[in-house]
Structure formats: C-alpha cells, structure tokens
Amino acid sequence: MAFFEITGRSTGTRARTGVLSTLHGTIHTPVFMPVGTLGTVKALSVEDLTACGAQIILGNTYHLYLRPGCEVIDLFGGLHRFMNWKGPILTDSGGFQFFSLAQLTKTTEEGVSFQSHIDGSRHMFTPEMSVRVQQSLDSDIIMCLDECIAYPASRDAARTSLELTTRWAARCKAFWEEETGRKNALFAIVQGSMYKDLRAASADQLAALDLPGYAVGGLSVGEPKDLMMEMADHTLPLLPDHKPKYIMGVGTPEDLVELTAMGADMFDCVMPSRNARNGKLFTSTGAVNIANARHRLDTGPLDPHCTCYTCRNYSRAYLRHLYKANELLAYRLNTIHNIHYYTTLMADMREAIAEDRFDAFRKDFYERREGGGGVGLNARTTD
To answer: Is 356 annotated in the active site?
Structure first.
C-alpha cells in the first residue's frame, strides 16, 4: 500500500482528502495533530485523546532527548509504549527549538551545538543525530533537521538558511535510508522566509530528494497573518501533488479552514491545549472566554452543537467556577473540549470535501461565527 493516497478533491478549491498509511495505523487527511511535547498532551490521558478523535499526535525530539532521554525510552522500544499511545506519532526534528532557544545554540555546516535549557550540559545535533533520536522514539513520521530563521530576515540570510536546510535534508535522507531501511516516513521542511522566489527554490531542491512528504516551515515566526497566509498559498502548490503537505505550527480554526482550501493536508499547533489552560475555548460560533462574568449563571453547555465529554456533562457555569477557582479539573475539561473541537472541525472538512461541498461548508463556517478564534498566542511554541 502506498504511504499516501488522495481519495477526494474539491472542485472549487485545492482542498483534498487522503489516507496516510503508517506502521501504527492509518490517518485520514486533512488532519489536526495535537502537540504532546514531552510525551503528553497537557492535562489529557491517551484515553482522552482517543475519545476526542485524535488520529496522530506529536512528540518533540529536542525535549525528549534531554528528558527523559533515549536510554529511558529505549527500555520501552519507543515512545508509543512509553506513553501508552497506540496510534501514529510524528516527531519534530529539533530545528524549531534551536530557533526559539537561539541564545543557547551555535549552527555550523555540521549541525547545531547547544546548551541544555535544563542543566546547562552541552550537546550536538547533526542531521544524522536528529534522525537517530527520532528512530529511537520509533516515530511514524520523522522530520529532517532544518534551520528556521526569524522574521524579518534579509534575502541573503534566507538563501543561506534554505541552502543549508537542503544539504541537511540530503544527509538526513542518506542516513534514514541506510540506518532505518525507510521503515518510517521522512519529511523535508521548506524554508525561504517571506521571499516567494526563495520558497520556490527550496521547494524545488527538496522535491528532487523524492521524500515521502513535505512540510512548510518558517511560518508563525513573527510575521503578519496576511503575509503568513500569502506564503502558504504560494508554497503549497509548489510541493509534489502526490505527497502529503504539512503546515507546521498553525493555527486558529480559521487558519485550518483556509489552509485546507489551499491544499494543506496536515496541521499542528499548541493553540487548542494552551488556550484551554488560559480559559479560551473554541465553539461553533467563535471563541469564548470562560472567565467572563456572563457565564456565571449559564446552565447550558459550552457549545450545544458539541458532543465532547465536557459539553455532554458540564455547564458553562461549572466550567467558569472551576477556572476561577484554579481547580485542576478545569485544565482537563477545557482541553478535552478544545481538542475535540479541532478534530471535529477536521472531520467535518473531510466530509465536506468528499461530498464536494467544501465551498458551502466554508461559507457556513464563517456565517456561524461571532468573532474568530485567534487569541494572540504563538502557535509555534512547545506545549
């Protein structure tokens, strides 16, 4: 069976449905992947994630390498058994963490030397080392080590970065083929900052490697939202049509709808789980701040159209009480709802694309909303 098969297309947009086949199960796309940086989606058990409809989750190579360490995870044969998650796992390469912790890192042709943010110890990540650690985690989808740069960036800096990313991707591929026998899937990451011609050059260079999948990186790094969407819309068609296309670290429900329309297949961000812990909850009519006084006497569910455990069992008044009282249960109930909202949104989009009514779905999505889901949090941080 092919790793990725396109099963449907929207005639009015570039949206499509597909199936990813991995060692730990199949994934129906477009798909949202909850972020479990340290082997856990904060506040949730794997049983909660399954009940919420999560198909695949993320682990973070940098953080898991430092703590608990590969020697611990090796005892369990990988991250799946260690955290008791039976579905597929995607792991980041560490590239974004080196970007966000730039003051602790030094990048050379060989790789990235860095100082642990935990204990100050020194380490070195080469492209080969990144693949080796992800193989130790037994990831179903592993990412090539890339260099992510901040916005704004000069053209020269962006070109130098994307060319280094290409050379690193070729090294990742060689090591992946030799050491793993291609048993999992390796994705390369397009860079190029906010320069369309450099994005095109990066996509061309990486497509020549003929890897199982491709990601659009270097977004949500401080650029304006309209520029982020412009770069995504420009880059997605440049990637091989028969390969899965992954937008990294984005974003709001509106982002997911628009990026799906542009042809993206995979998404991740910390927004639903982090916002849940800050009392920001997503509903079919827009974002809700559960701390607001207007919910104090509200006996109804958070979202009457939602079928999650939280909405089936608890009122807005109770959720507000838990949050205002700093009760730990607030984190779990809020996170269950937000993750369920995101996975349900993706399922609804898959159904709309399969029935070739995605344009109508998108129109209805915006008509029902009262004010959008963006709450000003950086989606590209770890959770």
So the answer is: no
